[in-house]
Amino acid sequence: GGYFPPGSYWSIPIDELLKTPGYATGAAKDAEREQAKKLLADAGFTSGLAFSIIYRTGSPLYYEEPALIMKDQLAKIGVTMKLDPLPGTAFDARVNQRDLEGVVFGEGEPSDDPDVIFGSKYLCISGRNYAGYCNQKIDDLFSQQSQITDREARRKVVWDMQREAMKGLPKLAMGWATLIGARWPYVKNYDMGIGF
User: Fold this and answer.
1) Mean of the pLDDT values across residues 26-44?
2) What is the C-alpha radius of gyration for the chain, rounded to an integer number of angstroms?
3) Which of 102, 131, 126 lies closest to 116, judged by CA?
4) How far apart (Å, rounded) are the C-alpha atoms in residues 177 and 193?
């Protein structure tokens, strides 16, 4: 799915996504890992790279498991990740102060609309842009797609916005889940979708 849940109207088609760095499978994944090692070495990290990542404790492995998976996968390309588990209030304080090198956490969204997903966390001024990442082209595409009324034309701009984000946005969606959902019995044919 990329930045939208798999199967969402807005998600990049799976055949394209599998060609995007980080999304390969099977033998292509092995080649991708070798390329990542080469890129690290070319960037001057011949002995690898190390950083720490924070995650919230207290949940039944809800945040720890993704952190362990990420640590394991990054180790395969020479990146050492130190895990820094924190209780809720200490975790929240570090995230809100942007006092971190990396973070694992879950997010909930009321809708998979691009205005909601990108507007809340992927723009230069988004309140939940914890990495502080800023790419004016993403902001420009966001503004453009928000003004398009034709759904198919808007989707093409949303895909371009995601492609641009995948080039440099330091964020990875590791999974999607529907945790809670409710609706009135008179609401018909509503698909809550995965991730919401």
Assistant:
1) 93
2) 18
3) 126
4) 9
